[in-house]
Amino acid sequence: MAAMYWREETTMSATAETGKIDSTNRDPNLRWLYVALVTAAIAISYFDRQTISVAIAAIQRTIPISNEQFSYLQTGFLLAYAALYAIGGRMLDKLGTRLGFTLIMLWWSLACMLHGFAGSFAWLLVMRLLLGMGEGGAFPAATRVISEWLPAPERATAMGCINAGTAVGSLLAPPLIGLVLIYSGWRAVFFSAGTIGLAWVLLWAVLYRSGPDGASDNLIAARQIAEQLSFREIIALRSVQGLVLAKFLSDSAWYFMLFWLPKYLYDARGFDIKHVSYYAWIPYAASGIGSFLGGWCSSRLLRSGRTLNFSRKLVLGINAAMMPAVMLVTHVPVSYALVLFSIAFFAQQSWSGLIMTIPADVFPLSAVGTVSGLVGFGGSIGGAIFGLIAGALLGHGFSYTVLFTAIGTFHLLGFLVLMYVGGEIQPLRIEDLTKIESHA
Known about the structure:
Elements: H1 28-59, H2 67-95, H3 97-114, H4 121-135, H5 138-149, H6 152-183, H7 186-207, H8 217-228, H9 231-235, H10 238-267, H11 273-279, H12 281-303, H13 308-322, H14 334-362, H15 365-395, H16 400-422, H17 430-439
C-alpha cells in the first residue's frame, strides 16, 4: 500500500529529499534572495487575479455581467489554472526552474494586460482562461525553488514567506486598484498590473541560478528513479491522493472567500469602491501573518526534535479547527464580520503554505514539480466547482449564509483526509521509490 511509504523516522532524517543534503554550500544570502523573488512573483499573481474582483463594479458600467457570469469568469480562470497547475509542474521538472518560471510569468503578465482591451463578456472570459493558464505554474515553481535551495528545517518557514505573497498581493489590490479606478479607469488597472509582471521577468532572468548540488550518491539515484515515474504511477500513490483531496476541499473554501469577498461587501453590506478599498485589505493582511506564522511554528517544532509528521500535522489541525469561524459572518455586524474573515484567512493561508511544503518534504527534486502541480490541480478544481455552485445558488435566491456555513466545514474534512488517507509525512527513500516503480 503506497501510504505505507510515508513512514515514521526521526526528525534528523527528515531531509529535503530522500538522502542527506549538505546545506553548507547553499549561500544563505542567495537562497533568501530567491525566496524574496518568488514571494514577489506570488504577490503579483494574486494581485493580478484580484483585479477583476475589485474592479467588477466599474467594469459592469461598460460590460453587463450578472452573478452567474461573474462565477463563469472565476471558474474559467480556475479550470485553466488547474489544468496548467498539473501540466506546468511536469513542465518545470523537464525545463528546470529558471526557464520554466520565466515563461510562466511572461505568459500571465501579457494575459493580464490584454484584459484592458475587453469590450465584451466573451473577451474577458478568454483572457481569464489565458491568465489562469499562466498562473498555474507559479506554486510548482515556488516549490522547486524551495527544494533546490532550502534545507528541510527551513522549508516550512520559506514556504510560509512565499505563501505570504498571496496576502501581499491581495492586500495591495483593493486600495491600489481603487486608486487607479478613481483616477484612470478600469482598463488602466490591467495595463499597470501586467507591466509590473514583465519587470519581474527581467529581474528573475538576470538573478536566478539553479541551486548547488550537494546530493549524496543515494539522493542522486533517488532522483533518477523518481524522474522515471509516470504521471499514473505518481497519481496512484495514496499519499498524493490524500494531499490532492485535502487541497480540493480547502481551496473550495479559499477561492470562494478570495474571489467573492469584495462582491459580498458590495452586494450584502452596501459597500462602494471606496469602502472596499478602505476595509477589504484587512483579511488579506491576516492571511499573510498566518502564512508566515504557520510555517515558522512548524519549522520550530521540527528543529526542537519533533518528527516531520507531527510538526506538519499539529499546525494543520489547529488551522482546520479555526475555519468554522467563517460560518458566523452573516450573523454579525460588518466590523465583526471582517474579524471573522480575518481569522479564516489567517488559518487558510497557514494551512496552504504547509500543504504546499509537503511535496518538497517527501519527494525527490525530479518529482517535486509534478506532485505539487497535482496538489494545486486538486485545489483549483475544487475552487472552480464550488464557484459554479455558489453562483448558481445566489442566482436562484439562496443567501450567502448557506455558502459560508458550507465552507466552514471544508478544512476539517480535509484534515481528516490527511490523517486517514495520506498516512505519515516522511521522505520517500530509495527503497520506497524502487518498490513504486516495480509495482507499476
